[in-house]
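Quick illustration, no need to memorize.
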Amino acid sequence: MATFVKAQVASLSASIIDFLTTLVCTQVFNVWYVLGSVLGTTAGGIVNFMMGRNWVFGSKERSIHLQIIKYILVWAGNLALTTAGVYLVTHYLNVNYILSKIAVSLTVGTGYNFLMQKKFVFI
């Protein structure tokens, strides 16, 4: 249970970076919301990897390189799911992209990221 709680704290921290990056890109620099979402997801992914490796799961592998490769594979799936989800919910359901990003991120974070990190990346 402690690992799950730590993972949620790391996820929340990464999400804050993700959302701040997305909002700054879209609201300040007028970047298209899909690109802003990609940039936010990238920034959040870096934060989440470092927290996951060092604090949540406590690295069991000596080599960070293998974990980075596995994390990138999982992160690419996260990026694809999040980007597609934000686009579909925003475009087809006519929901504000910020609300879309929140809903999609929560769904992907709990249903995909935690399990993949625990069972594949940080084993």
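Residues 2-121 form one domain.
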